[in-house]
């Protein structure tokens, strides 16, 4: 039986939203590391963002449900720890979506580049941790709005 | 291999017990941001526990999962250092305990990334990123409170005086460690002391705190010889549900 191409599978996975930050897909997040066919069996390799992230179980279920909706049910998920997930793997599309949503995307210098609300440059850190393990709390002293920063790891 | 199993229990029990301790703050922290930060830190440590104890169960080969090891062992089978089972005390004591553990953990994980056992190296690679973030935060908090007000300084010095006698145990070595060194799996804990002292000395100096002079070290946790009375109380809370309703799930 002919199966869909791996590119097709990647496109389908790109439609599965992150359960915590639904404006980006699991592919945008960079946690899908590999998609490979073994005959008619599909292997999908996933890496966790943070080892204790409570969304991990939900993500696995969402991947399986997403693929099942396209008729793919003979699927095995593999957990891969190394190389460890890094925010460098976030797609440019994902970074732009985060900023539109009001979350400052990770920046190479380790701190947000600008306020996602007003673009202001005068920023201060409120807390090293935010509402999910992957975010920190910041505030813009130009517009005085708080915002989440997707921290760099 | 029993030595590897023991080594993995030591790693996993440290993060399990400290992760549980820190989670006790949930809803009780001085301010909301700290509450969230402590809960996130606890979560990372419980996540690392799943990796360490998951591998421990696999190595043991008796079909025990990470959950079985966490919820169905009693105090005498735990292999965490005494430091992590000590009560939270005030916020300052919690953050001092966290800093002393983080400083050890980040050093240990850095070495374990070179482990001859790829499974251990992979977990260390993952966990070290989180530990680096933890030690940055706990170190900054120790400096902020130590070099803060008269009240906060006094509390941080009292926390250091209370906790310091529990630091030495993290650098103890025994037959298990010798076997791990022999196999290239883990460094001799004693060899981490220099790097630890450098980091801790620098942060505590900046925090204007004085390291107690006595080298005395309480021990018995990582060997399981004798835990403090605090561990039993912690386990009673943590394991209650699985003990009362074996196999309960939601």
CATH topology of chain B: Ferritin
Order of helices and strands of chain B: HHHHHHHHHH
CATH fold-level assignment of the largest domain in chain A: GMP Synthetase, Chain A, domain 3
Task: Quickly name the level 1 CATH class of the largest domain in chain A.
Answer: Alpha Beta
- How many independent structural domains of chain B? 1
Radius of gyration of chain B: 17 Å
Helix count of chain A equals 4
Shape assignment of chain B? globular
Q: In terms of per-residue confidence, which ranges of chain A show pLDDT below 50 for 5 or more consecutive residues?
A: none
Whole-number mean pLDDT of chain A = 93
Instruction: Provide the gyration radius of chain A in Å.
Output: 17 Å
What share of the residues of chain A lie within helices?
10-25%
Shape of chain A: elongated
Topology (elements, then pairings):
The complex is a heterodimer of chains A (153) and B (250).
Chain A lengths: L5 H8 L12 H4 L2 E7 L2 E6 L8 H14 L6 E5 L12 H10 L1 E2 L18 E5 L7 E6 L5 E5 L3
Parallel strand pairs in A: 2-3, 4-7
Antiparallel strand pairs in A: 1-2, 5-6, 6-7
Chain B lengths: L1 H22 L8 H29 L5 H6 L10 H4 L5 H22 L5 H29 L3 H14 L11 H8 L10 H14 L22 H16 L6
Keywords:
heterodimer; A: 153 residues; alpha/beta; GMP Synthetase, Chain A, domain 3; 2 domains; four-stranded mixed beta sheet; three-stranded mixed beta sheet; 4 helices; 7 strands; 24% strand; B: 250 residues; mainly alpha; Ferritin; 66% helix; 0% strand
């Amino acid at each position: 039986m002919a199966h869909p191409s791996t590119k097709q599978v990647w496109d389908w996975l790109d439609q599965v939203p992150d359960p915590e930050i639904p404006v980006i897909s699991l592919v945008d997040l960079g946690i899908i590391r590999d998609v490979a066919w073994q005959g008619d069996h599909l292997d999908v390799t996933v890496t966790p963002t943070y080892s204790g992230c409570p969304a991990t179980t939900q993500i696995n279920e969402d991947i399986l449900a997403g693929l099942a909706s396209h008729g793919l049910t003979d699927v095995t998920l593999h957990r891969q720890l190394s190389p460890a997930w890094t925010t460098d793997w976030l797609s440019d599309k994902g970074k732009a979506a985060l900023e539109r949503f009001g979350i400052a995307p990770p920046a190479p210098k380790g701190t947000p580049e600008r306020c996602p609300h007003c673009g202001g440059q005068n920023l201060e850190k409120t807390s090293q941790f935010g509402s999910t393990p992957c975010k920190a709390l910041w505030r813009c002293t130009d517009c005085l709005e708080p915002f989440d920063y997707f921290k760099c790891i | 291999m029993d030595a590897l199993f023991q080594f993995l229990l030591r790693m996993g029990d440290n993060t399990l017990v400290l992760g549980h301790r820190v989670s006790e703050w949930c809803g009780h922290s001085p301010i909301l941001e700290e509450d969230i930060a402590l809960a996130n830190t606890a979560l990372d440590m419980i996540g690392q526990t799943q990796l360490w104890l998951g591998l421990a169960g696999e190595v043991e080969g008796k079909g025990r999962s990470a959950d079985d090891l966490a919820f169905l062992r009693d105090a005498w089978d735990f292999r965490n250092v005494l430091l992590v089972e000590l009560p939270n005390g005030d916020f300052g004591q919690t953050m001092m305990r966290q800093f002393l553990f983080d400083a050890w953990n980040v050093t240990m994980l850095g070495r374990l990334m070179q482990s001859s056992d790829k499974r251990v190296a992979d977990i260390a690679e993952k966990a070290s990123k989180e530990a680096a973030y933890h030690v940055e935060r706990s170190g900054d908090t120790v400096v902020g409170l130590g070099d803060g007000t008269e009240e906060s300084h006094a509390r941080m010095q009292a926390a250091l005086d209370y906790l310091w006698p529990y630091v030495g145990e993290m650098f103890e070595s025994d037959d298990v460690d010798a076997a791990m060194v022999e196999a290239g799996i883990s460094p001799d804990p004693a060899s981490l002391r220099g790097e630890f002292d450098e980091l801790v000395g620098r942060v505590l100096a900046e925090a204007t705190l004085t390291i107690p002079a006595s080298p005395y070290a309480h021990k018995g946790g990582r060997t399981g010889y004798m835990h403090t009375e605090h561990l039993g109380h912690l386990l009673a809370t943590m394991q209650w549900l699985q003990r009362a309703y074996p196999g309960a799930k939601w």
